[in-house]
Amino acid sequence: MPVERVDPDLVEFDLRSDEMLINMGPQHPSTHGVLRLVLRTDGEVVSDLTPNIGYLHRCAEKIGENLSPRQFVPYADRLDYLAGMNMDLGWSMAVEKLLGFVPSERLRHLRVLVCELDRIASHLVAAGCYGLDLGSFTPFVWCFRERERILLLFEELCGARLTYSYITPGGVTSDLPKGWLKNCEKFLAEFEPVIDELHATLTSNSIFIHRTANIGVLSPEMAVDYGCTGPVLRGSGVDWDLRRDGEPVYTRMYEGYKFEVIAQVKGKYPEDLPYPAVPREAVLGDCWHRFYVRMLEVVQSMKLIRQAMEKYSQTKEVLAEPIKLRQKLTVGTAYLETEAPKGQTGFMLISDGSPVPWRVRIRSSSFCNLSVSAELCRGCLIADVPAVIGSLDIVLGEIDR
Amino acid sequence: MAQALINILDHWGLHGLAQQGWLWYLVVGLVQVALILALVMTCVAVYTWMERKISGRIQDRLGPTRVGGRFGWLQPAADGLKLLCKEDLVPAAADGLLFRAAPYLTFCAAFIPYLALPFAPGWVVQPMDTAAFFILAIGGLEVFGVILAGYASGSKWSLYGAMREAAQVVSFEIPLGMCVVVPVLMAGTMNLTEIAQQQAGWLTSWNLVNPFALVTFFIYMVCATAGTNRAPFDLPEAESELVAGFMTEYSGFRWSMFFMAEYSAMFLLALLGALLFCGGWNGPIPVATMLWLTPEYGDIAAFAGNFLGMCSLITKGVLGVIFMMWLRWTLPRLRIDQVMTTCLKYCVPLASIMLVGTMVSIFVLRGGLSHPIKPVEMPAKQNQRTGRDCKLKIREGHASPLLLRRPMVCGKIFWQSRGTGFQPVEFDTGKMPVPRWRPSARKSSHTRPQSSNFQFSIFNSQFSIFSLSREGAC
Amino acid sequence: MQFQDIHQQLSRRFGPAILRAEPVAIDPWIEVAGGLLAEIGLFLRNEPALRFNMLHCISGVDYFEPDAKKAAAVPWQPHLEVLYHLSSLVCKHRLVLLVTLPRWQDDVPGRLPELPTLSSVWKTANWHEREVFDLIGVNFVDHPDLTRILLPEDWIGHPLRKDYRPPHEYHGIARRVENAG
After folding, report:
1. pTM of the entire structure?
2. Where residue A225 sits, what CATH number does that domain have?
3. Does A244 touch chain C (CB under 8 A)?
């Protein structure tokens, strides 16, 4: 069904008698940034929703055409600013794919380590904000408390708390500082019990279940059709994770790692660790499942980090310098998608042989994930709109680019 | 409380004021209102501080630490100052008059019920036989302010808040009313002083001990949370859905009026719950009786006992408020249909069962219908104030089928029946002179009939418009 | 399924509409004729052996060198390319479709080149085509709602074209002049 176009000046005329047109955003507490949702409502029932994006458009692709790949790294981590490491990784690996660069062992484990750590940070924001969307303030603060510790680790690592520019094409800016691994280990040990607390206040909270179960049900077919990726896709029961199913250029980073792809396959989630049970009310593909997938992925990421720390400690080599600031690129086109916390983020470079790419294209996961919101919100209540939008875990920096 | 005031004024040699009935009325009225307002406002200020501290502790934060020392004691004052300094915005699309009036309406509705709320035996601004009914009735008016605010703001979000409030109020008021009926049934009166006095003694004499009342108390607390628009029932102001609901367009002092109304309504319902279910001013241990702080041991002892009782009641109220805060910072918000489901589909049937259960238990435990209603002639007791004999006729026996009729009757005639309760005290008014307050009345300030006599003395018949008492109407 | 097999299947089915294939590129691509794009898309999506059920990305590229001196050196004529990145979650293979378009329809500046929409085949295409329309300027015929998505509705021009010049002023907001060139 086509998304109906809503012109704010004209639309009042084609409203039915009981209908009201209401703007949710661009300044609204639960649109996660400057997203504007035009709701056509009949009382509390939303009969139509039109997302309106572009308020945070910063011409990232155009900027990419004027900067060399290493110069573009700070712009990359401003796309999904909640998972800057993963954005840097996506960009760097796309460049490396173009250049045919193969990362060393130590670099590979280091990247897994920081990316998975950032995935936890991103999922914590998602979980906390989702609680906030549903009116539960406390888990939000708890999540941010734990995320703060990750940010402190990153600050120690690269001096930045949010926009790291740490992973660059051809390497990282610096190796781990002394004692960092110990701090990281300490964090993991202390973070583990907090997950249970979050499960208690959110995942298995009765009100939370009632607010999220059977709301915004996204069928697997529709999810694939709309290009939904990441936890949104896996929440619909599609067993697809680029860390396992991606291009070899990317999957070889995770070679030798043991982890589960979190998706309900044949009615069952992976049972390698004790997880809270799926409530009876939940339907595969609803908001609850999307949230649940994220919560379980946090545990998988912790598993990955522990492995990465061990593997990293075993390597002794010195990390090579990243590529030069204005290194000439190989002629050709390279497109690579990586599994960022919010879904598959793709970067494409077209190079004519000069140090500056001819064209940079960013495929944003949140962009595709948001496009399904109109479908999910049709016929739900106003209170469900934040529940659905929150469960998609969008970040506007990545959508508007 | 009024009696205590009179004592003080008399001490200053101002009892000549008593000769001027209307002036006296005015002064006492103003002082009483000021006292209650001071108490409530202090509590609200403390609650805003407490809410920050409690939420802080729940969320592993410190809460306010800067203004007023380590614990941020002066945070409410700083907040108040900030709110007063903010610009008072009225949107261009708003209906100016209604927009400005709405906060006051809400605040008044949240505050007026305190006038009927006893803090200790006799410590009540306006003793009423139907205090429970009055409090619910006036407290329910709060919704008008909210709906007006939402309607007059000229904002769609505000309108949604108002509509939600309207939907919510019809959901929670019904079970809330039913919950209040349960202790009223148990006590056989709607007089809150009476209800609380009946629970005097140890913890075991609290209404809460009755299993039906215990369940009712929980339903009451759920409905009270809904009634004060607190999470998880804060739908009219749900910030993640409706920005700030009916308060979206308000700022500065008008906004703080809503804020104060919310907190005073919380406190009110917590106090009411304490009076109805948790013994009122009677602590779990009858400390006052153990320390001989009863009227038999003189005024000071009685005052101290009352003061202890008030502290006990306020402590219970504060605990109730803390319970609501704890809920707020723990639970996610319900959806509007879920609120209505909770209130109408679960709370109403449950409350009905409790109501029927209470009635049955009263019959079973107290001898059933066959129990005769005996008017008991009390030995004639000398009215200390008038020096005349006063005939007290007290009816006994809770098994009366009249019990059910009484609340209705009382609802009808509550403006006439103030001060006597379901145990009608029949004064032989013919023998009584037009009473006038005299210092000798001090000794008798701690029993209910006398406190009504005090009212009698003030609102004597020449001010029939104010004289809400049966005696005064004579 | 290997790239060669996909190419063969497509060639067998659509013959002349399959113009070129590049199996040794970093991401192997197949160039198809724009006119049959919707049919090709439907075939790729529904053919049991192919099952390209996910469209990842649609990217428009402008091949145009505004600098006349450099323009003489480039190996291509000015044109637009639209790339479709497809993959199959079932068969776990990937494909890049490429369509070449003139920069302007019938070489009339201002008339956007046309391409059939794929939004009826993959829902992803809906927003992505709007984005390509918005930033590159391709008219997707039969698109249900072809309006600007990232830029304001009254924006003029398509900024990712190489000859795009930003406006000096937009609704009273002046552009900084030092880099106005």
Report:
1. 0.81
2. 1.10.645.10
3. no
